[in-house]
Task: inverse folding
């Protein structure tokens, strides 16, 4: 593999997984800036140097996460810090009689890190699956964008959810709001015009945010039965996209 090809592939992995890796280091291992920046750099330098071996790995995501985890654990051991009760790392002294018990907590940190890795990769799969879904059903984007705007979500968060830049998100939102004005009962009339798939992404998002069927129904001006049917169809439509990602992982 040529260096240019390796560099492009490393940048692609950094763009896709970088935010998750950073959250993984900060929230699981409680590593603070600027150390987390150093570990991010170390992680993707090792990715670049070892890309040829990736051909033998079953998953890019798990491979990159394992590099980041090893970097974090090396940092904790070298700095003589361990995670206690999943709180702030605690320093220990070589002569401290409690050193052995403190070091034992590294196993707990590894277990917590593995769980965090699974959760973050699931999140990554959901985001990627929804992005692919939107390419197949482009009309599914507007109901989600309009709703996120009404829920007063920051534009940066909205951009991350739909995998767009902030300027692209603002432009698309304006287009959706302009189209929204053509409908009196927006969600129901939009669905009638473009198909049930147009609400699947929105309903999936609201459900993932903890909304129950009654809350979703009141927000969309739909009956409980209609929401239940939409959720069922949503699962049928979205699961193939998520299953493919999870199978790769």
Result:
């Amino acid at each position: 593999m040529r260096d240019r090809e390796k560099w492009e592939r490393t940048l692609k992995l950094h763009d896709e997984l970088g935010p998750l890796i950073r959250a993984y280091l900060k929230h699981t291992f409680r590593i603070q800036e600027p150390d987390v920046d150093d570990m991010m750099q170390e992680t993707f330098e090792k990715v670049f140097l070892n890309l040829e071996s990736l051909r033998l790995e079953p998953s890019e995501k798990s491979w990159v996460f394992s590099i980041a985890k090893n970097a974090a654990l090396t940092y904790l051991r070298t700095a003589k810090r361990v995670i206690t009760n999943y709180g702030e790392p605690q320093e220990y002294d070589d002569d401290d009689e409690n050193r052995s018990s403190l070091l034992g907590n590294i196993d707990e940190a590894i277990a917590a890190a593995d769980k965090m890795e699974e959760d973050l990769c699931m999140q990554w799969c959901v985001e990627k699956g929804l992005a692919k879904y939107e390419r197949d059903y482009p009309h599914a984007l507007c109901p989600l964008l309009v709703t996120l705007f009404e829920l007063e979500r920051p534009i940066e968060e909205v951009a991350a959810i739909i995998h767009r830049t902030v300027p692209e998100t603002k432009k698309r939102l304006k287009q959706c709001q302009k189209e929204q004005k053509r409908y009196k009962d927006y969600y129901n009339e939009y669905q009638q015009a473009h198909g049930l798939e147009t609400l699947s992404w929105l309903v999936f998002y609201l459900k993932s945010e903890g909304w129950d069927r009654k809350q979703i129904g009141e927000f969309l001006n739909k009956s409980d039965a209609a929401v239940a049917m939409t959720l069922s169809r949503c699962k049928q439509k979205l699961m193939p996209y998520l299953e493919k990602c999870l199978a790769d992982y």
